[in-house]
Structure formats: C-alpha cells, structure tokens
Amino acid sequence: MKFRTILDGDLEKVDALFQECLKDLLKREGFDGDGDLWAEEVARLNKTARKSLADQANRFFVAEKENELLGTIALQTPGHMLNTMVQVEPGAMEIACVYVHPAHQRSGIGRFLFQQACRELKAIGKQKFYLDAGFTSSQQYWLAKLGQPNRLLEDYWGQGNPHMVWIKKVD
User: Fold this and answer.
1) Who's near 73: CB < 8 A, 6+ residues apart?
2) Cα–Cα nearest to 161, from 152, 170, 150
3) How far apart are CA 156 and CA 171, in angstroms?
4) How many structural domains does the chain have?
5) For a tag site, which of 28, 38, 143, 155 has the least CB within 10 Å?
6) Is residue 17 exposed (0-12), middle (13-18) or buried (19+ Cβ within 10 Å)?
7) CA distance 109 to 101
8) Residue 162 belongs to domain spanning
9) Within 13 Å, how many C-alpha atoms sit on residue 158's CB side?
10) CA atoms within 13 Å, Cβ hemisphere of 121
11) What is the secondary structure of 81-95 as a DSSP string?
12) How many other CB atoms are there within 10 angstroms of residue 82's CB atom?
C-alpha cells in the first residue's frame, strides 16, 4: 500500500470515495434519509482536498493500492469548529478527513493512514495534534485508538450525542 500526497488527477476518485464513505456512514448512523447532510459533507471534504493542492499548510493524503484509492487523511490548520471547542495552540495541526472505503474497512488501512500522518507530523516538527469526532462510529474508533478524549462536549449534536476532541502528542 502506498501513502502519498493528493494530486490534481485524484480529485474525481477522491470525490467518489467520499460519496461512498458518507453514504455508508450516514446509513450506519441513522441519517441515510438526509440527502442535505450527505451533500454538505461531501462538498466540505472535496473543498478540503482541493484547498490542499494550493495551500502548503494543509496537506491531504491518500492510501492507494494498485491505482485504487482506499482511504484519505489530512493534516490541516485547525478549523473554526475545533477552535470553538478548545484553545488551540498556535501552529498546531489537526488530523482530519480520515475515511476508508467501506469495502476496505477493518483491514488496517485506517491504522496505516494514522501512522503515516503521525510520521508526517514528526517530519515537519510537530509534536502534538488535535482530532475531533462527532459521529458515533468515528468516536468508537478513536476511543479504541486514542483513549478518552481530552474534551467531551455533552449533547453537542442533540441529547445524548456528544462531540469528542483529542489533543495528543505525536508518538
């Protein structure tokens, strides 16, 4: 499996990956009838991918095997949402846009993407990262990988639906 920076020629494949991932995610989360949420999230993710092509501060990566894009991950300047939840240190990076194609989940690709992202953080001299999750399945994954969040925003997405934020040192 190959880990690399996104290229202009990847944008259509990345869009298709986001569409599949979000269709699956929203179905599992009970939002499968919410086409607006699906469209907004796909558009937001595509915007992040495109932004990274022109902005060196925001880096977007793909996991690829035999010319098939299997997953994505981004290192970016923490966005407005994260900045409203925690006091972000100047110059800090956020790990974001972690998506693995539904047909390839639970095969180590997420772990591979995360490990490679941490290597990239080290390579650019970052010692800490921020990561947040609002979807239950994403929260379960990151709880298992990173432990308890540093910040738990109870009922952020409605009663019984928190948002979680992790602030971790790069290992």
Assistant:
1) 60, 61, 63, 95, 96, 97, 98, 113, 114, 116, 117
2) 152
3) 29
4) 1
5) 155
6) buried
7) 9
8) 2-169
9) 2
10) 26
11) HHHHHS-PPTT-EEE
12) 20
Q: pTM of the entire structure?
A: 0.93
Are residues 142 and 86 in contact, defined by beta-carbon separation less than 8 angstroms?
no
Burial 101-134 (b: 16+ CB within 10 A, else e): beebbeeebbebbbebbbebbeeeebeebbbbbe
Q: What is the CATH number of the domain that holds 64?
A: 3.40.630.30
Q: Encoding tokens for residue 79?
A: 């966005």
The secondary structure element, H or E, covering residue 146 is: helix 136-146
